[in-house]
Fold each of these.
Amino acid sequence: MTISVVVLISGRGSNLQSIIDAVLRDALPARIIAVVSNQADALGLERARRAGIATRVLNHKDFPDRGAYDRALRDLVDEYAPDLIVLAGFMRVLGPDFVDHFDGHIMNIHPSLLPKYRGLNTHARALADGATEHGASVHFVTRDLDAGPVVIQATVPVQDHDTPDALAHRVLQQEHRILPQAITWFAENRLTISGNRVLLDGENSPLQGLRLPTEH
Ligand code: GAR
């Protein structure tokens, strides 16, 4: 089945591009029906336009508080009635007005091996901790920030003399693999949320911790 997807972004949009490319390769049974940004100058909007995808901007600064923004965003996304909403570098925390409405239908890509390093500056924090491995996670979005059930993770070894930028670059390459993979599983109806875990094909073994091998 081909699912309809709305992608939310705030900036560069390289993860959005990985989804667009997977759809174009016929590797992902999805149709991106709109890209929504909270930043009018997000580069990702240009990527969407180039791919012929409808774009919308909803700037959080135009709203008096977080709840008002969440409700306006919910109503905007509802116009498209998507099967799935993908947060691909969307740098706003979404509250219950949005999250509860689309419960089980929102995925986020986060640049760390959750539950480690929720929030911002994940690469610098991993380096400051002396972590030997780092990575990225795709998870379903719940009310708790970066704490929803994990669909898939990819690991990246930390190298001697790594910098946050160098590490971010290598993690991003993995993000571009696991986000289309997670969306594909969703489209194929192979994911089940069970408590705070995700099952693939109903298997009891939790996907949390399932990792793709790192490419060298
Ligand atoms: C990605 O690294 C993504 O994981 C991260 O922002 C970057 C967006 O890059 N998201 C978060 O930190 C969410 N808390 P992109 O715009 O090139 O996809």
Amino acid sequence: MSHIRGRFQKAADKSVAEYTASIPFDWRLYPYDIAGSIAHARMLAKQGIISEKEAETITGGLASIRDEIEQGKFQFKPELEDIHMNIEARLIEKVGEVGGKLHTARSRNDQVALDLRLLAKEAISKALLKLREFQQAVVGLAEANKGVVMPGYTHLQPAQPVLLAHHLLAYFEMLQRDADRFSDCLKRTDVMPLGSGALAGVAYNIDREFLARELGFSQLSQNSIDAVSDRDFVVEYEAAASLCLMHLSRLAEEIILWSSAEFNFIELDDAYATGSSIMPQKKNPDVAELVRGKTGRVYGKLIALLTTMKGLPLAYNRDMQEDKEGFFDTVDTLLSTLGVFTGMIKTLRVKAENTGQAVEQGYILATDLADYLVKKGEPFRTAHDIVGRLVSYAMEKGKSFNDLSLAEYKGFSPLFGEDVYSITVESSIVARDVIGGTAPMQVERALDNAWKKIGDFKDGK
Ligand code: ARG
């Protein structure tokens, strides 16, 4: 039987009750719903809308319902549709008719908006914390491998030598922007919607500022219709999570590549890898693969919510109940991904011998040879052309740059001299001494700046 009686002569059909119920997933709003209701009851008493004694009965009842839920004793009823009505019905059951006064000057529309904002605020704080821990792991790994060189890639072809630390610090920067996006989205989430009622505001002398203070909000919503009908803060969270996971997924992809037999740049800790049920030799990077895999699912939730919202007339529409599953799933996916990925980064081992060997291959110093000619007066375009021909010649002879004689070099340009042999991976890296470049001094500074931004905690120190 439905909780809402009044004009209805029959209860909703069982299939309708099941189809429209949100309790299977919105039960997890209970701590926010109860906190919101306690603040609301206190406010109603403070304003003389209900008596102090009534408020005490109500808040006491709500607190004991919270205990029931936490102890797994609460019976969620699908016919009561959602968490709001489940709690309210239980309250009335426990404290009697006075429980029915709680919903004075309130609607489920502003109530659910409040609950979601409270959950979102907490989710953002947790994401920020976990992002920071992840950054600490990444910067820690960079610092622990400060001297390690590797090929930098474009098109997944060896391009120029870089420090591994420089490569890893690229992720620090991405994650820093991700954190900024979450902090920014927090500002717009931190808005208290109670008092909006169903859509038009409420016809009681309520104190919205009191509610905001009690519930820890810094702002009040300024339009009741907007407050109950928009879910842009959820979209923003999902968008920020999507971007963050896009970054994590790229690093996951690199970890998958690097741990392959072909690259062999890193070794994952046994605790962060899995075996094959059939091929005993295998050590699979499943965690990284699932980071990459789960990213798609988070994008899906973002598009789903944007699509749900785009055609809705103001104000509340039941379609908006569809905001929750995707949101909760995104919160869980982001937090668990950050947690497990942090552990994987902290425990992986870099194989510096192999990255060092890889960087010696594939004419990776070609740009440096061109730069060498430019410094001797050759225009860059022709220098590029000369070195291009030199590479093709060396490939044909099966020689590396170092194997070429000075006479062979001079065959391509008279500007080549003995000092061409001083071009090495190290000199190439040292030469890129610009702000944001891979030169050791610059990377050292970038590491310092990174630690300043993410706190003193230094991994492995
Ligand atoms: N279960 C609903 C939701 O999640 C709560 C708000 C219901 N409001 C209403 N007018 N039916 O959106």
